[in-house]
Write a structure and sequence with these properties.
This protein is an alpha/beta fold. It has an 8-stranded mixed β-sheet with strand order 4-5-3-2-6-7-9-8, sandwiched between helices. Helix content is 45%, strand content 14%. Helix 5 links the parallel strand 2 and strand 3.
Length: 482
């Protein structure tokens, strides 16, 4: 899913909130210094009004002057200068409001003199640290694949650096005018040709695709349609002969380029933040339960099948990004080796999933001499979804979400067609629409893809909560919905 950027005042709300906290901390410490660490000399009602008016002043200055424009591009010196300018304007507006409100006289001059000094120090340090955090965690793991002509490659890279997208990682080039796969242009590898690019996009780690063609080029409708089917967020630079916007397309900005962006769905930063906060809260709670389950399950697993308690497996996450998924081990140590022997019993005949009516690789499962089936610890863990609880650690890491789509294994991923890839346009989840729709009964992979893409297209926080409640109900009934 594409995260829609906020515009104007809301675009840098995070920096505004940080500045407000720094401003209030500076004002509070200035008052502590003035009154020698005691609150006896404070006029509580007066300084409560000062705090409130300081917040108003901060917001007024931010709206009027847009002091956070290009904030991610500023160096240390320029940021320091901008911070001083910003604090000076806030101080002036605050003094003016206090004068108009006839509150200036009783407010300590020492407080009003020390406050801006502390504010500059706190705000400058906080801004630098927050920018470092954003560049390390919020932007650098976005991969943009650039589709263009060979003679435009270096200009495209230069133009992408203009604006706040400068920290985006360009993962590779694909040239439409000549095959140059394996070569390097402007220190960026050419990863595919026009003939095999959809295969690369389908099976590689590609978050977004930027299509930049000459002004006189025709709209590449077939290419854009294929990218849309694959669930890839696509950015198409608008040329002078561009047609009107199609379904799901929005106008966006990348550097100097005005682009038409199409994604299977788009969310605002507020929605993305709320979903992540829900994931963090659920992840912390789930990890706590996982620790308790470990005390109960670990000795049983080791006793019935010597080896590690946890099992990790490489899975494919959002947009083809590989990650290690964790579980309590519910299978014997040689389960992967025995998988090939059991392929003919797979209920999903297309090979896109692996499902058995009775899996002898599960701890405690046996086929008795009379042909009857005996189950044990592993089957209990899987029916009650206890084996899935370590995935809450994946949720905390950000590899997964509480609600999403089932992450495929590497061998399943290699078999994906273009339209199958759309189900990985969002983070994989511990549970999802497919799981609560009766996962044990659905063996048609096309039906799984349909349910997953329906979830992505209609995503909302309300839908996530509804799926979580259904999951809890399924687990309580021991249906193993996770």
């Amino acid at each position: 899913m594409y995260k829609r950027k906020a515009k104007g005042f809301w675009k840098h709300l995070d920096f505004l909130i940080i500045d407000i906290f720094c401003m209030l901390a500076a004002l509070f410490l200035a008052m502590l210094f003035r009154f020698h660490g005691s609150s006896n000399g404070w006029e509580i009602e007066l300084y409560f009004r000062v705090f409130t008016l300081a917040i108003v002043s901060e917001i007024v200055v931010t709206i009027a002057l847009n002091p956070f424009k290009n904030v991610l591009k500023r160096g240390y010196y320029k940021e320091f200068v901008k911070t001083i300018q910003h604090v000076a304007f806030v101080e002036l507006v605050l003094v003016f409001i206090l004068y108009i409100a006839q509150l200036a006289e009783p407010v300590s001059r020492l407080v009003m003199g020390l406050f801006p000094v502390l504010y500059v120090i706190f705000a400058y340090i906080a801004r630098i640290l927050w920018k470092k955090f954003l560049k390390l965690h919020a932007w650098t793991d976005r991969n943009i694949l650039v589709i263009t002509n060979s003679d435009m490659a270096c200009d495209v890279l230069e133009n992408m650096k203009t604006g706040e997208y400068e920290t985006i990682h360009t993962s590779g080039f694909i040239f439409l005018d000549q095959p140059m796969e394996g070569q390097t242009v402007c220190d960026i590898p050419v990863v595919a040709t026009q003939d095999n690019m959809m295969e690369y996009i389908c099976h590689g780690w590609v978050d977004e695709v930027l299509v930049v063609l000459p002004e006189d080029a025709k709209r590449p409708s077939k290419l854009l349609q294929q990218l849309s089917e694959a669930g890839v967020t696509r950015h198409y630079v608008i040329a002078t002969n561009s047609s009107r916007l199609e379904h799901n397309e929005i106008v966006d900005q990348i550097g100097k380029y005005t682009v038409m962006t199409d994604a299977i769905n788009s969310v605002t930063w507020v929605q993305a933040l709320l979903k992540r906060l829900m994931d963090i809260a659920g992840g912390l709670f789930g990890c706590l339960i996982t620790g308790c389950l470990y005390l109960y399950l670990a000795p049983k697993i080791r006793r019935q099948s010597p080896g590690p308690v946890f099992f990790s497996q490489e899975r494919i996450g959002q947009n083809g990004r590989p990650f290690k998924m964790y579980k309590f081990r519910s299978m014997y140590m040689d389960a992967e080796e025995r998988k090939k022997e059991l392929e003919e019993l797979n209920r999903a005949h297309d090979g896109m999933m692996f499902k058995l009516d009775f899996d002898p690789r599960i701890i405690g499962n046996e086929i008795l001499p009379d042909g009857t089936h005996k189950t044990g610890l592993g089957d209990f863990m899987r029916r009650t979804s206890l084996d899935e609880f370590p995935q809450f650690f994946n949720v905390l890491k950000g590899d997964m979400s509480l609600v999403g789509t089932r992450p495929p294994t590497l061998d399943e991923w290699e078999k994906y067609d273009i339209h199958h890839r759309a189900r990985m346009a969002t983070k994989p989840g511990i549970t999802g629409l497919w799981q609560v729709s009766g996962r044990s009964k659905i063996t048609d992979f096309e039906e799984v893809v349909r349910l997953d893409t329906d979830y992505i297209r209609s995503w909302s926080l309300g839908l996530d909560i509804k799926i979580l409640l259904k999951t809890i109900r399924c687990v309580v009934k021991k249906d193993g919905a996770m």
